[in-house]
Amino acid sequence: MSSASEEAQTGAHRLPRKRKRAIISCTECHRRKQKCDLLYPCCSCIKRGKQPLCYYEGDELEDLPRRNSSPHPDNTRETNTLSGMIHLNPLSEVQSEPSREQDHTLLISNLGYSATNSHNTLGIFRKIETCDSYSPISLGAAEISRNIQSGLNQKYKDLVRQLPSRNYIDILLQTFFYDVNWQYDVIDEITFQEQLEAWGNVSYSALRRGPYDLSADTRVFPALLFEVLAQALLYQPPAGDERLEPLKYAAEMTFHDLGIEFSEAGATILAMLGKRDVTMVTVQAGLLRASFLKSSGHVVEAWHALGSAVRDAQEIGLHTRKISLEQSSHSPETEVRALWDKEMRSRMWLVLHMWDLHMAVVLGRPIATDLRRDTFALPGDALERRKGIGPTRRTENDPPTPFAVILAGYHVAYQYLSKVHKMETDGARIEDYSTVHDVHAAILENVHLLPSWCHLEDPDLKFDKTPGCHWLPAAREGLSSLIYFVLLALHRPYIFSVAKSRTQALKAALMILRSQARLFQQSEPRHYMVFNLVYASFDAIVLIAAIYILYPSENGEYLEDSLRSIEWGTDRLGTMGKYNKMAKSAHGVVLALYNRLTHRLASPLATDQSASRRLSFPAPTPITIPFPRNDIFANSADISNSVPLDFNFTTFAPLHPIHDLFYQNLSSVPTINASGLAFQNEVATDSTADGWHFEGTYPDGSFWSLMNYFNH
Fold this sequence. Notes:
The chain is mostly helical. It has helices spanning about 5-15, 25-30, 45-50, 100-110, 120-130, 150-160, 165-180, 190-200, 205-210, 215-235, 255-275, 280-295, 300-315, 330-365, 400-410, 415-425, 435-445, 470-490, 500-520, 530-550, 560-575, 580-600, 655-665, 705-710, and strands at about 75-80, 85-90, 665-670, 690-695.
């Protein structure tokens, strides 16, 4: 067969050749198989910093529109990318050569480098720039504006439309700065009012252009405003303020419901704006969000919100001395503002640190912050801010400020919570007990150094009626509760192994309940929604009951006071339970524990609250605990009403009642056929209940498991 015929035959069976598609994207986008906007340089290459690799094959390059010649009237081109619609500022609107600060911004926002770390890549670039002539990092590419997703502008506008009108805002701000802000003192009223004024001056046209057309503080301010208003709504009286009734848009809607919506709107704005331009306002909004969640009974979510606020604070360097405050001028007014900004930043980190320590110890969670004296300067005890005057040290003769109370609490006791947490996480080893002794002695010594106006016993009341100090009596009781909580937490890990710690923890718990009783007497029903009156009382009651249930023949001299304090504390929780779901849940648990305790002590179930309590105990009554032989309780066949001799209580983990209540869904369910103590304000219970059964996801072998196996 001839070659020609072979070729003809082969060609007859050859598949038709596919027409080669023309490559119209740039070579880099074609290699990465991603969409190209056909500009030069294209959006994808700019975003990835690959402008030198952006070119087109053939002669198409000359016909491509340049990045600096957009046909749109606003000289801006919108391009679809994997992350949605982004807006690109053309070169004609920015410098053809990126500035040094623009390069730094790109490294911070696009690559995530910290602006406060001098040892990362950004820090190295800064050091190079001081030694040599500057050459731009980004190779002359166009600056990418603050890229926002398609629809973000509209969503932002929809959220800020939920803000009430200014007259309602002013009413709620009065409540916030009178009833709420003194508890944290991290929002300066003068600065806040200036920010509110700036937000009120934002034009509709600026709002239409989106949040990234606003300054960083102004764009996130609505989130802070929402959280402030939500806090104020928690403090509305049960009957409500008639002036605020128009804010409710549905029948049977409460101010708490409205507060939930406002707080969620603030959280949505924070999440929508992201973490690229974190400011002090972002941190303030995050802390108030955590506080609102905590008061609403969402403790797990509050802990995570606090962690987010801590990370935001670290992002802008609040945990270090390296605080750069930009000043556009050196006028006295600007310098005063800068000094107060620095003061408030230090205060914010201290408050975040104290919150983090407290929640870590209360909930048994890890600590996310530290406060190293070599890298952080504690804020001073300054007078209340006045316009035009910088931070001025307060003297003993000057009226106290809310932050003076916070600072006193840190110096007296809170600084030791990190040691308490470490001992607990290390397993409460006996070899570490010397630390307990040292910290206990240090706290008691520090208590004696408190100024007279905040003495825990017999304080000087000279400032209580001073204008602007209406908060002082409540703050004093709060300080007392917190100091004694640290002592309780210090000894709590050892209550199952060291008798001395049982006594010291018991005494601290009694002091907490006394302070809480005085604070409750000062409070009104509108204060019952917040967490302050629930957490400390619940922890103290559970610890007292646990000590007397497990060691009934110890600390007899405190028994009458303990039973009375438990009854009064339970009564308070029952009263607050009508307004506060946390208090209602805690009330059921402590009611069940009291039922266990009275059976354990074989005390008459007297209804006369003033009746004397018998301090003698009946003969031991065996209590069978049907656990498997391999369980931790297998070492003891019974538990009697005497001090346990053959039972190893050290196997118990330290008590964390608040953690169990929220993380392990601790609750109590009444059983039948007996009567219990009648409290003045009862929740709905079965009056014929024989006892209470604890339910939850707590592990077998926990304190709550043991309580369920007590026979009555």
